[in-house]
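Shipment paperwork, digital attachment
Item: protein structure file
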Amino acid sequence: MNLSTLDMVIIFGYLAGTLALGLYISRLASRDMSAYFLGGKTIPWWALGVSNASGMFDITGTMWLVSMCFVYGLKSAWLPWIWPIFNQVFLMVYLSIWLRRSNVMTGAQWLNTRFGKGRDAELCQLVVVVFALVSSIGFIAYAFKGIGKFAAIFFPWDLAPDTYALIIFAVTTLYVVKGGMYSVVFTEILQFVIMTIAAIAVGVIAMSLVSPEQLAAATPEGWAEVGFGWQLGLDWSGVIDSVNDKISSDGLELFGIMVMMMLFKGVLSSMAGPVPNYDMQRILAAKTPSEAAKMSGLVSLVMFFPRYMMVTGLAVLALVYMGPEIQAAGGEFDFEQILPYAINRFVPVGLTGLLIAGLLAAFMSTFAASLNAAPVYFVNDIYRKYFNPDAAPERYVALSYLVSFVLVLIGIAVGFMLDSINDIMQWIFAALFGGYAAANLLKWHWWRFNAYGYFFGMLSGLMASLALPLLLPDTHPLMAFPLLLLISLTGSVGAALLTPAQDDEVLKAFYLQVRPWGFWGPVRDKVLTETPELEKPPMGRDMANILVGIFWQLSLVLIPIYLVVRDYQGVLWSVALLVVGSVFLKFFWYDKLQD
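Attachment content:
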């Protein structure tokens, strides 16, 4: 595709402006570690929330969502549960508050709150550092693969996708590494505004160009239905035959079982809390625990409408106007490139430049957030703790620059070895995060769980997830989740029961500071003898808020989808669900927030 001069001016003007803004703000980040990695805990909660939403509005994930909407229709609204998107509900209801009460800089440092400062706690911190670095490399490879595929469609030079990715990575890495959390947050707010304008415009274009009758003629029976049974029930034969092969390769024919597995994995992963990435860093960067909770709630509220306006808009445009071409191409079409092809064909000059700038912004947001979150684990929890505890703040910040560059290089190397976005996405969210779930679920909810249990649980889960592609290459990562969970759970519980319980004083201090619910009876009884006025944690209320919150969040996904396909009855039902959920959460969540 040869972009117009206007589009090129918009794109490169945006990239230059973002780079300049990031470097200008960077002077605020260089003061010390807290300023660089957490913005000095002075950034407003709404800014952190919009920044977090922008970081999740990534180009690679959006390309995947467009391909899923194209293939699975309205049933694709359930597929983000693989991440799971409803972990934000668990965070806003209680986990963000629990995490922020620790008042630390990293997830590894948080473990001192739970397990004390002995040798066993140090082992826990080391394994979290390793997990954070592996996770960061996975996200960098994920972003690398997506941005290369995207750029190759639009830019006029005859370069390979990976070459384009290298160029864009070079620009983004410069402002992210230099600017830290300040740069990430404030450039992401700008990026989110641009992306929202462009995304809503795409949805409106689709609504003006595609009628419900045209969409029905271009899709199989059941495509426009959200409900599902055990079988997927979508037969694309005679419409676009190659889509049936795509469904088979995705392993989603037994759709009901897969959604149940996503829910099972998603609930356990959500209760385990955020993995040590950008989501956790924004929680720790909030001013207070209640602001951390409000920040997590805002993510769902602002992210889904613009994103799904664009996702659904591009999917229906491609179905109606590109469907015959894709059918003629047979099995040669790459469904992950529907997004750039649809923009190429249907978005007018000027708006194309804005949309590409917005999608580049989405990529830069995700990449920036992932890269900013990881170096602090090495610098703060390894170098500062064991090698140079009294160095000048500038030295720690300078070392974080070096760690960031090394992580980018390794992530790029992994990206070169991948064939598709789906490969790395499924491994990160189903396998890697699956190995994380057991130990981190137990650390919050079971008093007898100790540091050795956490270390061996995390280690066994991490090793199993890394070994999965080598030992079981044909197994869908989601279907391997029960095995990964069992391995990690065995390591966690076995090591915990074979070693002494954590010291009483450590457990009581943790319970008093964080006030978790779960299996804390013996510790709670001891704390209450010393602090009888302590209120009981609101487990029942939290569970009710989570149940309502999941359906509240689902309504935020369905409203833009129904709107773009012009199913106004579906819009009304979804808005009604949103209103009822919002009223419930106002009284039983928002009004009950405490620091």
